[in-house]
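#lab-general

N.A. 3:47 PM
ok so I finally got the sequence cleaned up, no stray characters, all 280 residues accounted for. can someone with queue access submit it? mine expired

B.Y. 3:52 PM
send it over

N.A. 3:53 PM
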Amino acid sequence: MNVEPWTTIGQGDSGPVVAGIQYLLRARGFGVDPDGIFGPQTRARVVDLQTTDGLPTDGIVGPVTWPKLVMQTGSGATGDAVRAVQQFRLLRSPGDTALTVDGEYGPRTEEHVEFFQESWGLTLDGIAGRETWSFLSTASPGPRPWPLVKEGFSQATNWRVLAAQHLLRAHGASIVPDGVFGPASGAAVSAYQQTLRASDISTTLGQLDWPAIVVEVRQGDEGEAVKALQTLLPGELAVDGGFGSMTDAAVREYQTMFAPPADGIVGPVTWQSLTLRIFD
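B.Y. 4:20 PM
back already:
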């Protein structure tokens, strides 16, 4: 749940996530037309998969069924499991050429998968495995997941590292906000998670952590949470921890474009938007 935001998909749903499920079913040997519509035939094949793997036979693809359905693919792989990934198109920017659904995991597919991974703070290996598929599964209408901040990353490879470090400091961590998410930052995440819950503890900042760790800030506020905000806002704001007129103007400009209303108050909606890659 915290690091794998699997979406639940069932009869009546449609779109690329459904098409991905259908291609994966085909790769598993369960014949179905990959039309992107979750109808009775797709439900029946999901039940067949669930029966084979000893899962509850509800015909729904959720957190229990997804891990049994996905197949890891990478450079050199071929077939329907590759098509399952390619049909998401995985555009890197407006006007980018979409992936061809040819079932061949070549350099372009690998590059697009790695870009997708970088967008969400995932392991940058160009391989479409369980972690990557958990985020691919969210490519449907509804709330967006939060990205991950994982040990071993830096500000250069995950632009939320500094923000995460400053927010951890806002909650009492004594780490240095150096833009390197090493063992000390990972330990700070674990310690923070233990103040929230008794299980699902790790060194990765994820779905259950972001909503709790972000702090509502506005003009006049000072401190580590404001520094976190300043590292995420576009432009070259000074990371001084003071929410002054320049930070307020930058927040309102961002909210006008991406996270209305433009009220200058940075709450959960604005915080989440700032952590996501947005094509302008």
